[in-house]
Amino acid sequence: MHIRLNRFRLLISTVALQAGCTLGPDYVRPEMPVPAEFKEAEGWKQAQPSDDRIHGEWWRLFGDSRLDTLEAQVAGANQSVLQAEAQYRQAQYWVQSSQSSLLPVAKLTASFNRFEAATGQNVAVAGVRNLFNQAVNIAWEPDLWGRVSREIESNIDIAQASAANLQALRLSIQATLADNYFQLKSLDEQKKILNETVESFAKTLKINQDRYQAGMLGKNDVAQAQAQLDSARAQAVAVDLHRAKLEHAIAVLLGKNPSELSLATMSLDNEPPPVPSVLPSELLERRPDIAAAERNVAAANAKIGVAKAAYFPTINLSATNGFQSTNADTLFTAARRYWSLGPAAAALTIFDGGRLNAQYKQAIADYDASVAAYRQTVLNGFQEVEDSLAATRVLAEQQQVLEQAAAAAEQALLLTQDRYRAGTISYLNVLASQTVALNNRLAAVQLRGQRFSNAVQLVKALGGGWQEGQLPTEDQVDGDRKWTEYLIFPVE
């Protein structure tokens, strides 16, 4: 059977509110001016045909089954995500711990005394005696000023912020994985180009060597062809190193040792998908980091009430019920029962050197800082979206121009080679044309990889399909508790 602590909280709070109140300001979400539209949204393509929203598994927008498989492993394997999940559970237990302060504390005590009474005319019974005692002591501090209620409110807000931070971290790691994945695919395309280039340069070198042996070329042309071939091979080796590092990074993101993951060569010959658009106002509800910052503001607001309640007196009530006997056999009998109410104690701080006043002002300053942090987080979110939108447009235009340049460079190389064979130009012209053609092909592939990476960053900037409604509610944030968990004994 499960018992929700909120039922106890409602009962006890009703009693407390008859004599007290909740101090401190009620929370109001800080205002944040929101633009009507994104500045860089011109030309932002809407996803077709009907997928006009980013879903939780946002990586499926890219239609890559291997990426789908990798992303599915992140949540349950990445160590940083597992750490954040444990921190969220810790925050839930803080909520439970603070809620327990609304309930009385019961302690069971038992004692045994063996003593010898002093002899004399005023002693009723002389000699060695035993004294057995068993009692239940109950103590309770009514939440007259709402200090405990505000602490519970603050801890609930902190737990909700922890849940949002967990999602923000999960989204960040998923985006990093996708970014590394597309960079790796881009490197595979670059390696393919370099392998083709090495093969072509090797053939050119062989031709130059043959022509040198026939006395038709100077040794300088052979040396230049050899140098160019070696340079292309060095570039291919550098690509291998970069690819290996990306593969290792992906393995660690998946919670694996780098030696446990090997990804086969892949191609990157398609276009990045269009990302569904959103309104600027929706961004405040879509980004988990913004939600976490807003919950931190609410927590700081509640702490002001906690600090304010410290100015008022505390009242402690207690009661005891037990048995006392000189014989263990008669201990638990009605005749040996005793009870007491009290002591009831009240305490009010009248001088502390300004400590309470400083703590109250500190809570206000902490709230002001959290509001500024929230607003800055919102601004950063808008900036990231605007940056990604601008990059989406500019990179697409650059891709078109660069592909035209690459095609023109290939045509120029063919013409230069024809003129070289005809003997009208030197081999230096061929080298220059080959270098330009190679650089343009590599740049085009690198740019396509950047476009995929930017699409990933845009989805991340839009919250990755997350919604503020996914935050755990007050009832959910403290978890389900069995009645045995209200006892002191640990129950697994």
TrEMBL record:
Keywords, ordered alphabetically: Lipoprotein, Membrane, Palmitate, Transmembrane, Transmembrane beta strand
Lipoprotein keyword on record: yes
UniProt main location, coarse: membrane
Pfam families xref list: OEP
Source domain of life: Bacteria
Localization (cell): Cell outer membrane
UniProt key word Membrane: yes
Membrane topology: Lipid-anchor
Family, as annotated: Belongs to the outer membrane factor (OMF) (TC 1.B.17) family.
Name the record gives this protein: Efflux transporter outer membrane subunit
Classification lineage: Bacteria, Pseudomonadati, Pseudomonadota, Gammaproteobacteria, Methylococcales
